[in-house]
Amino acid sequence: QNACITSLAFRDGRNGLAVSSIDSNINVAPNRLARTTDGGLTWTEIGAPASPTGNCLAYVPGTQGTYVLVAGVYTGDAAGSAYSTNSGTTWTTIDTNPYNAVMFLSPTIGWAGGITSATNGGMYKWTGNLLVPPTQAQWLEQTSGFPDSGKTILSMNAANQNVVWALGGDFGLNPYQRFTRTTNGGTLWVSGIVTG
Fold first, then answer.
1. Per-residue DSSP letters for 52-74?
2. Considering the entire predicted model, what is its pTM?
3. 155: closest CA among 180, 172, 130?
4. Residue 74's closest CA among 117, 28, 124, 6?
């Protein structure tokens, strides 16, 4: 079995986390988590949450050590989101919805992406405050803007709380060059095509 690092997230130039899963010919086993305090020169394995089986990790700016971990449908039965307020030492589950990408700009501004379908918009906006431990899931589902269903939000980037981009794909089964973006904080998402 080979460990596969699926995501890195850094609080600053020295402190960060890495999440990996064990990939044995597509079957993904429970994740592993490692922490660095020297910019990645050395890593120490720390306990990973049993759920979700993480594939994307984000540091929450404006905090001392809050991270959010998400997992999608291809990571087994342990899909969902969780957060840690102590640099990964302990984790609290937020929910069990499948997400494949996550990013935060602050404790109150964050985004997660899942899979688009006729009944699922695939895009989620955080509506809570991670400085106050959430007692329930605080992801608000939004329509992604992709013209077809069955696409996975693979990565996300934001310029600010209003301007956010997300890349869609289908895990390499077919070429897919679409992205979606919002300029109004997620009220409306518009799809585009990467050309060239």
1. S--SEEEE-TTSSS-EEEEE-GG
2. 0.88
3. 180
4. 28
